Amino acid sequence: MNRKRIEISAYDKVPFRNLTAYCIGTGRMDLALHQEYQEQLKMVQEACHFSHIRGHGIFSDQMGIYQGEGKYCFTYLDRVMDSYLKNGLRPFLELGFMPEKLASGTQTVFYWKGHVTPPKNMEDWTSLVKATLRHLSSRYGEQEVACWPCEIWNEPNLTVFWENADKDKYLDLYEATALAVKEAVPEMKVGGPAICGGEHSLDWIRDFLSFCERRNLPVDFVTRHAYLGLETTKKGRYTYHDMADPSAMIEELRQTRLIMQEFPSYQGLPLYVTEFNTSYNPFCPIHDTNLNAVICASLLSRLSDVADGYSYWTFGDVFEEQGIPFRPFHGGFGLTANGRIPKPTFWTFAFFAGLEGQAVYRDGNCLVFKGKEGGYEGILWNPDREETQIELIFPLEGECVELVELVDETSGNPLKAWHELGEPADLTEQDLAFLRSAAKPHCGTLPLKAENGFVTVSHVLSSHAVLHFKARRVNRTLEEGYDYNFYR
Amino acid sequence: MNRKRIEISAYDKVPFRNLTAYCIGTGRMDLALHQEYQEQLKMVQEACHFSHIRGHGIFSDQMGIYQGEGKYCFTYLDRVMDSYLKNGLRPFLELGFMPEKLASGTQTVFYWKGHVTPPKNMEDWTSLVKATLRHLSSRYGEQEVACWPCEIWNEPNLTVFWENADKDKYLDLYEATALAVKEAVPEMKVGGPAICGGEHSLDWIRDFLSFCERRNLPVDFVTRHAYLGLETTKKGRYTYHDMADPSAMIEELRQTRLIMQEFPSYQGLPLYVTEFNTSYNPFCPIHDTNLNAVICASLLSRLSDVADGYSYWTFGDVFEEQGIPFRPFHGGFGLTANGRIPKPTFWTFAFFAGLEGQAVYRDGNCLVFKGKEGGYEGILWNPDREETQIELIFPLEGECVELVELVDETSGNPLKAWHELGEPADLTEQDLAFLRSAAKPHCGTLPLKAENGFVTVSHVLSSHAVLHFKARRVNRTLEEGYDYNFYR
Amino acid sequence: MNRKRIEISAYDKVPFRNLTAYCIGTGRMDLALHQEYQEQLKMVQEACHFSHIRGHGIFSDQMGIYQGEGKYCFTYLDRVMDSYLKNGLRPFLELGFMPEKLASGTQTVFYWKGHVTPPKNMEDWTSLVKATLRHLSSRYGEQEVACWPCEIWNEPNLTVFWENADKDKYLDLYEATALAVKEAVPEMKVGGPAICGGEHSLDWIRDFLSFCERRNLPVDFVTRHAYLGLETTKKGRYTYHDMADPSAMIEELRQTRLIMQEFPSYQGLPLYVTEFNTSYNPFCPIHDTNLNAVICASLLSRLSDVADGYSYWTFGDVFEEQGIPFRPFHGGFGLTANGRIPKPTFWTFAFFAGLEGQAVYRDGNCLVFKGKEGGYEGILWNPDREETQIELIFPLEGECVELVELVDETSGNPLKAWHELGEPADLTEQDLAFLRSAAKPHCGTLPLKAENGFVTVSHVLSSHAVLHFKARRVNRTLEEGYDYNFYR
Amino acid sequence: MNRKRIEISAYDKVPFRNLTAYCIGTGRMDLALHQEYQEQLKMVQEACHFSHIRGHGIFSDQMGIYQGEGKYCFTYLDRVMDSYLKNGLRPFLELGFMPEKLASGTQTVFYWKGHVTPPKNMEDWTSLVKATLRHLSSRYGEQEVACWPCEIWNEPNLTVFWENADKDKYLDLYEATALAVKEAVPEMKVGGPAICGGEHSLDWIRDFLSFCERRNLPVDFVTRHAYLGLETTKKGRYTYHDMADPSAMIEELRQTRLIMQEFPSYQGLPLYVTEFNTSYNPFCPIHDTNLNAVICASLLSRLSDVADGYSYWTFGDVFEEQGIPFRPFHGGFGLTANGRIPKPTFWTFAFFAGLEGQAVYRDGNCLVFKGKEGGYEGILWNPDREETQIELIFPLEGECVELVELVDETSGNPLKAWHELGEPADLTEQDLAFLRSAAKPHCGTLPLKAENGFVTVSHVLSSHAVLHFKARRVNRTLEEGYDYNFYR
Questions:
Q1: Under an 8 A CB cutoff, do C74 and A426 touch?
Q2: Of B45, B476, C94, C381, which sees the most CB atoms within 10 A?
């Protein structure tokens, strides 16, 4: 068993920005029309209170905006935006893909056939962009819409998302689109290049900024994606990856920042990781596991060192990129499985999103905050297979209590229960209720004894466990005659 | 540690009637107007699906029915009845107490001052009864109302509930009221004497039946109450009892049955225990504990041997008999605390109410059912302070799984968490959310290995634990390439 | 002004079966996943309580059932069926269209590209049908699923819906599919040929029955469609028809019945009109008008003379056959517009669906019922442009009252309000609220004076008005001192 | 018929402050625990968005706060305050009545027996006040609670509300309580003397201010009540008044203001009318009528001339002062009847509360606003029995439309419908649904023709009608081929 003992003093501080809730990912935009999607989103928002939401396909044909030259239909767009706002979310707009009628070619991506060729007529494209943003600005107010960032396209450095991954054509698209955005709603922020990682990805960042600087184009932020999936093994419909260490992602982003600093005119630009996750495959079983929850804890504890916002891909499993999910657990990206069963990673996000106060300690197993009212709160995680004991010593006096929420193999892990139930493809109402219960973290209290002005919080974490605790002073209510121990 | 090993054969049967959900108790009838009451009731009904509900005070002034001779107001009555039916409940009507204007004296009971003296004019009383039942019959249909039992008064053998505990006056009241019921709605069922236990309680049963037989009065069922509280200790506002053994209650009811059998004209009358609980005091801390959950498990496993229906007193803590509850946990009768925090006993009722199939085994620690689809289900409880190990061996083949829900000191026990939080009198929203989570039973699955056609379910129960399990065959879905163990 | 005076006697009866609520139409099956769809459906069900629902595309790729040979995904199917049942609806299953991977050709129909070519392999098709029905039977119970009729394909007599409108290939499809249905769930009912009207439609009926009789195939019911649209005028995206008289539809169905009677082995088969409406075009402005409400009143008053069930096409405007609706009022089929604004025809269905008791009078302007409790109820409509006065004289005594709900140009007509607001493509929340209010029928009471045992109900209906009335006895509550007229 | 013609110019302004939504009245505080109460409140808030709520009895025994010397129970208080805040309301606290155990005498008021004698021990009383306010401040935050005004007692100038209407004892109570408020939460505002009108009411104001000035007491606002009821006629349980003219109330308040101006140290104090209505009797049938709606329109158009806030007594009919309401319409104060049936006066408040922009015209029949976006909006009312025609001429150009909502004898008047249905004491679900429909104002649109830059809005108001209109420019959406008139 690993052991760790950490003493926190009253003056400790570490630099950690809690950006957990900045943004969350979602599948194709029109899936927001689905009732199941809305119910999953509501559940996620109650726990995490994300501020923005980003997904693909605003201009894909399922949204039905482009109806031929100069004709637009905003029925579904309004319905989707209304639903975001009702859930306390603003869109982080990704301007893509191409309406079939505007596409210069026939190449599509995904089961749902998003067109990924450049516009056959750039002016029709920019008219579409401008009409859409003006419509939004008129419906929701210019002030509101100015808080909706606009990212141009998605992963143009991949041939599946942008014909031939043609960089020059992307830069043309960026130029025309960014100018159109500013023309339509001058206060909107615009950025790119929305690339995924890989061999030449850093060149893309450099070339993008260099092009924009040369042509004096608006760039309000830089965006890219980051995943940990390495070697893949395919079995049936599933993809299994070896996983890179979380620090690899941090390093990749640090490199990106270094390149950004080469451009004096873009000093201080925010870097947004508009997608991140462990695996980039929607049928990779890791997403449903408590291991995933642990890796995400590690990532969330460090991403704000190198990025100004990041967006887990995705909040839910109403998702169709490689086809309709065929079983409740199929390795989908979602924080929640279909049927509103939160996965272990759901709780990692809920725990991090709820942290309040001042960060006082961080290492590879934990992040600790001092709360506004004097107590301490933190998240512990165990990335190893071995048990790990963590002891934290806090300067607290008097009667104290610890509130604990635990996710591990047997708590907050509906995947295990579902596996043992026989991996049913469709769930009876009773099994669904059971899985929802099995998906709750174990939750309890521990009385703490202060000694000489210090209390010790100590936990043995089993393999791939994530634990949230709050240690705080107890203001005991005195009630004459009440004897808790009488019937114990 | 106690140990127990039980082998169940495919042909075992024990005589157990699952009457858990027949009826539930509630405080003063007009409290059903409260929103918090309705929310607690909804939560209880979702878990337990009770059929009837019984409480005091239909004719007390808070309901406002009696407005002077011949004038009645059914505004609140209708609102309450509507709310019962909406929750899937029928009233088990307790006809009492006395409207102030009809009372022959000034004696009242409870903080809310229910009048407990006989009517100053019996005809006005029976007119009130008839008008009320006719109104209900006209509003809800005679067929529906015929399923609402009518019990005459509450605990007339106590001087606090019936002036001087005057038996003759009670019998007069019974006669007049029972005849009025039958006159108003001939198909309604009527009964009494609604007594509580104690020294002369069996005499009351005998005298009641003897009186009715002699005067040829309608008696469709016999009712009485049963509690386990013995010696009391008072501390501040609280009452602590020593508790009788559950078998004392069973014996008390068996005695009652024996007396009933003395009356040939009333052969086969049902005996309804219209109130039961551990303590009869609404500020007795036992009600909030997991010990209470264990005692109730024992009672629910045996009550149907001696009674045809029983009603736990009460479903919730919106209750005012000794005053308004001043803290979330104050020893109230409710299955749920105020704030919709289920207490341990809530789960005992939910577990028992959900049992389906055929009872196959019962002893002082468990009740086991064979389900319709071949699996086994059961409830285990540990009334001792010592740990108890229970091993059950079932005839099951192939791959199996056990679904487990556990309530003990650290699971499904919000009282402990509240105690350790400092027993706060009012809860912040966050603490309330935490207590609700801490109130959930721990819930998980265990794979079972069948050997030679048998599987073994084995649990070590800690002190005062209640556990629900389901053991069943697994029909494993085969899905090419899915590897649950890849990321463990 | 037209005038009409009708005396109803206590013994009058007319043969009218109230089949209004038997079935309702809906667009592509997976649109039931949409939240807006579910909200519209809920609103419609609260008013009309339909029993069945029928729409296209169970096997289209949007439902994602067919995933390649022998692989099926029922995720969306279950979600849709769950939602129907939750709304009190059973599916009237239309088995079609073809999954892309099973289609022998590339021809598709609609904006959403439903494949309409025969299966390239009949066995794969029947395997798909059987697997789907067996799945439903296992999830919902065989007894339940036996109440879900199965219709084979949609309008195979049109080349747009079935390649070349090839009758022989349809009959082959019917044979294979009907036998597959009975093999999968023997108690399910099966029928066809689901044709629309037109030149050779009656031949299709005859040839279908003759083929089935010859080959001894199961036929539990005959289905066809019926619309009133004649000559069309196209303007922009809209289609305007001249409308046939409602009696033309009745006659068309009578002819169908006559042909059915030629087949002795199919005596007594039910005839279901699985689609009907005025226009068959989803962008025909008539659907939104009060004229449409009047025509439907006329149809609903007579359809049960010639059919055993009928299904208005469709309940709501979440519908994509010719593209996504671009304005709240665009001539869609729905009883309700998008945004949950009931159209005038919504009320026609609500009025008819609510009729209870015995039909006592019917003509081209009205249908009158005698209620169970002695009053009279009816629906009046005015198909003319001129005002029409209708006087009805009923045998009623004592104090009476009439409850009236009126839909005409200025009541219950949100189209007029929307037109005058400038026909906005997207609605502010305030305008939406206003339109919903403007969509309510005017609703009021009239005191009636009985003279010599008769009361007269008299209404002047403006052009294209529909009116629902109830005339009933008043049991006046006497309340001392209450003077309604004091403050008038 | 009266006729009126009013030309509005682009520069017109009148001094009108829209204080409609400042405060609303409610019955006994603990009635807020009722579900029906909460449902009525939600309905009222959706239409009117009141800011504060004021009612009696925070310290009455039903709230259960005072549990003996130094012991307090805040269970119900918290539940009530939580429910207010959830509905967007802050309490306007009325500190009274007396807990039974603190009362120096036995005199009570109302069916529910509120104690109205001075405290037997002033220190116990102020301890109670301070403990309660400190509890609220700790639960809801001092900043929040500082926005909750505190008024001392209710109508102490009436012997029924304050033993002997003893002015000196009231001033003592004021002194002690006001100082206690400031001690507990220094930022809270405090005021009095909460008197009702009548012979010596102005003396009370003068004596109150003179006393406070002399003793240098905190007075942050002055409060009083105002009703229009004059001579009363009793019939059965009902009270009928002759009604004073609305201008009598305005004059009464103007007199109050004049007295306030006599006190230099209290310059600029706000005057709050903490109760107003037509009749002050909860069984006065006027409250349910459209006449009441008209009188309230007149009052709301003028009250802000003389007061800084006012509170209609009351929002709903969950109310028990003279007993439990026995029929849906019984002359209760509520804007809504029990069963959530809005009364005509509900709409007067909704219309006034919704007025936005700049007041441009006012007379005895109307109040007109110019909206922010250039249109005009207003409320018209007809206090006469005769019809009144009102023509308003506005400077508006181009295509315009008028949105109209009308309440009169046959629209938005459920009382008439209920009367004609026979005045049923309890409502079937169907009749309830009908009454709710009959309670909606008639709602429609009228196209307006601008001539020479002016449009004319013209309405003939029947007796006791209230009408809300909005006249605005139409931005007509052009949609090729759409022909609204094709099917008219």
A1: yes
A2: C381
Identify residue A337 by its one-letter amino acid code.
Answer: A
My answer on whether omega of the bond before A218 falls inside 30° of 0, hence cis, is: no
Closest CA to A73 of A2, A135, A154: A135
Name residues whose C-beta falls within 8 Å of residue D215's C-beta, 6 or more positions apart in sequence: D175
Runs of H (alpha helix) within D378-480: 414-420, 429-438
Which of C28, C30, C35 is the best substitution to test chain A (most A C-beta atoms within 10 A)? C35
Among chain A residues, the shortest Cα distance to B480 is held by: A236
Contact: A403, B488; criterion CB under 8 Å: no
* Residue C275 is among the residues annotated as catalytic for this protein: yes
User: Residue A275 catalytic?
Assistant: yes
Q: Can you give the pLDDT at residue D290? A: 98
What DSSP element (H or E) covers B290?
helix B290-302
The sheet carrying C366-370 orders its strands as C358-363, C366-370, C376-381, C466-473, C399-407, C442-449
Greatest distance between any 2 Cα atoms in chain C: 82
Interface predicted TM-score (ipTM) of this complex, two decimals: 0.95
Collapsing DSSP states into helix, strand and coil, what is residue A98?
Answer: strand
Mean pLDDT of C330-352: 98
Which amino acid appears at position D320 of this protein? E
All residues at 6 or more sequence positions from A115 whose CB lies less than 8 Å from its CB, including other chains: A60, A61, A97, A98, A99, A100, A102, A103, A105, A106, A107, A108
Q: Which amino acid is at A176?
A: A
pLDDT in tens, D248-271: 999 999 999 999 999 999 989 999
The single residue listed with the structure tokens 């069984």 is D283
Cα B82 to Cα C428: distance, rounded to the nearest angstrom: 38
Please, is C79 exposed, middle or buried when counting C-beta atoms within 10 Å of its C-beta (0-12, 13-18, 19+)? buried
Residue contact D438–C447, C-beta within 8 A: no
Q: Is the minimum CB–CB distance between D415 and chain C shorter than 8 Å?
A: yes
- Identified catalytic residue from A94, A151, A252, A275: A275
Instruction: Name the burial class of residue C15, with classes exposed (0-12), middle (13-18) and buried (19+) by CB atoms within 10 angstroms of its CB.
Output: exposed
What tokens appear for A249 in the block? 């992602």
The active-site residue out of B275, B321, B402, B405 is B275
- The pLDDT tens digits of the residues spanning C419-445 come to 999 999 999 999 999 999 999 999 999
Q: Is A393 on the interface with B (CB under 8 A)?
A: no
Confidence of residue A1 (pLDDT cuts 50, 70, 90): confident
β-strand partners of B5: B391
DSSP label of D374: S
C323: left (phi over 0), alpha (psi -120 to 50) or beta: left
Q: Which residue has the tokens 């008696």?
A: B219
Provide the shortest C-alpha distance from residue C259 to chain A (in Å).
Answer: 44
The tokens 């309680």 sit on which residue?
A: B201
3-state secondary structure (DSSP) of residue B100 = helix
Phi-psi region of C385 (alpha: psi -120 to 50; beta: other; left: phi over 0): alpha
- Is the CB of residue A263 less than 8 Å from the CB of residue A235? no
**Whether the model pTM is above 0.80:** yes
Question: Look-up: residue for tokens 């495959």?
Answer: A281
Residues of chain B with CATH 2.60.40.1500: 2-13+358-473
∠ Cα B201 B275 B139 (to 5°): 120
CATH match for B2-13+358-473 among 3.40.50.11030, 3.30.565.10, 3.40.1350.10, 2.60.40.1500: 2.60.40.1500
Active-site pick, D94, D155, D252, D321: D155
Question: How many residue pairs from chains A and C have C-beta atoms closer than 8 A?
Answer: 57
CA A159-A161-A167 angle, to 5 degrees, is: 60
CATH topology of domain B23-353: TIM Barrel (3.20.20)
Q: Which of B401, B383, B358, B390 is nearest to B465 (CA)?
A: B383
Distance CA C317, CA C340 (A): 9
Q: Omega of the bond prior to A325 within 30 degrees of 0, cis? A: no
